[in-house]
Amino acid sequence: AQSVTQLGSHVSVSEGALVLLRCNYSSSVPPYLFWYVQYPNQGLQLLLKYTSAATLVKGINGFEAEFKKSETSFHLTKPSAHMSDAAEYFCAVRRASGTYKYIFGTGTRLKVLA
Amino acid sequence: DAGVIQSPRHEVTEMGQEVTLRCKPISGHDYLFWYRQTMMRGLELLIYFNNNVPIDDSGMPEDRFSAKMPNASFSTLKIQPSEPRDSAVYFCASSPDRPYEQYFGPGTRLTVT
Prior knowledge:
The complex is a heterodimer. By secondary structure, chain A is mainly beta. Chain A has strands spanning 3-7, 10-14, 19-26, 31-38, 44-50, 56-58, 64-68, 73-78, 87-95, 103-104, 108-113. In chain A, the strands form 2 sheets. In chain A, strands 2, 4, 5, 9, 10 and 11 form a 6-stranded mixed sheet that branches. The N and C termini of chain A lie far apart (41 Å). Chain B is mostly beta strands. Chain B has strands at residues 5-7, 10-13, 19-24, 31-38, 42-50, 53-56, 65-71, 74-79, 88-95, 103-104, 108-112. In chain B, the strands form 2 sheets. In chain B, strands 2, 4, 5, 6, 9, 10 and 11 form a 7-stranded mixed sheet that branches. In chain B, strands 1-3-8-7 form a 4-stranded antiparallel sheet, with no helix packed on it. The A-B interface holds A 32, 36, 41-46, 49, 51, 90, 99-107 and B 4, 31, 33, 42-43, 45, 48, 50, 55-56, 91, 93, 95, 99-107.
């Protein structure tokens, strides 16, 4: 079985500060991992993905994430927060083979303070 | 491409009525997913299709929910009869043959009174 845990349902950072959103996963088989962003009243948009290539993954809007198998983590970071980063962020996992069923975390709402 | 198209964007209905949500996936995508998002339960996968065939419907809450994909460019999610607890935002997403990326529609906000 697979699962995803996002630590912190709400995170606040100052504009220009480091953004760190945490995601830990549980999977009995090699996983694929994803981060999505959702702006108000919109669907989810893919930020980045890990599919067993490089463990440090770069995405859109300056975000990146590192796959750490020993820690079963896939935390999302951005060196300098921008006001436009305020949104809800979801981590997701699916098996690398077999079912294409995705499991999403409960989301972290990021607030950026001026 | 116009992206994933969902209709209606908002639906308000009374308990007991039939509700039909519609989705047009991105052309050429082989996979289609229906999700439900609520504050209490987050984002839940209801069902997904591959080449118009339902593959996994284990997330469908109960028999009141049904989904069809009659062709590669159209899918419906039907709730009959609807109940207030069905109130949620329903998303459709599609992905290409190697579904490492899902493309989400804007969602349908359903309110059942």
